[in-house]
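Reviewers of the previous submission asked for a worked example of the structure-prediction workflow described in the proposal, so we include one complete record here. The input consisted solely of the amino acid sequence. No template or homolog information was supplied to the procedure at any stage.
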Amino acid sequence: MSNQTTFSWEAFEAAPVVGILRGVTVDTLNRIIPVYQKAGFSTIEITMNTEGATDLIAQLRDEYPSLNVGAGTVCSMDDLEKALMAGAQFIVTPILNEEVIIKCKEIGVPSFVGALTPTEIYNAWTLGAAAVKVFPCSQFGVGYIKDVLAPLNTIKLLPTGGVTKDNIADFFKVGAIGVGMGGSLFPKPLMEEGKEEELMQYLISLKKEIPTATILS
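From that input alone, the workflow returned the following structure tokens.
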């Protein structure tokens, strides 16, 4: 296992995107992750409802020491324990589980906690979430993030769902500190064997859409 046990905020802030991989195989990871890193991204989430998720997380931690490797779809303390045992450096949830947030805060592991309403977002933040994953943002869009941040401007928001190459810049412009992206970051046609160069070019062009002025320092 890598010596780097803690999440690198510096690496994340240089490319504030959590890449979400669900249902992937070892072979796919071996092809995709070097491309992802070479394109300038540093943070990847393997969802816990992926077959063999803990093995994949452990493998990524071992083989890519400069990558932030996290566990997603963590809904329970059982999920959390398995993710941490595998070496996850950050935790992403689709829901607000108080126990999970409090435990992550206690042990110093960042949690990106799923919430939607202003009340849920505020509660997740006050419980100790490192950032609040506004999910599913696909139904609400950029305007919702802007509206929430008007009164709750000290909360770090990480919209997830519905973030695309076409609108990613807008999310940062209204104050998001990062975004979560799955299929729009890893389009299925570009995940196929032999498409690595096309995927690389796509990822590089997407990264250019992130306004550098909004990236934290």
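The longest strand covers residues 17-21. We consider this example representative of the routine output the project will generate in years two and three.
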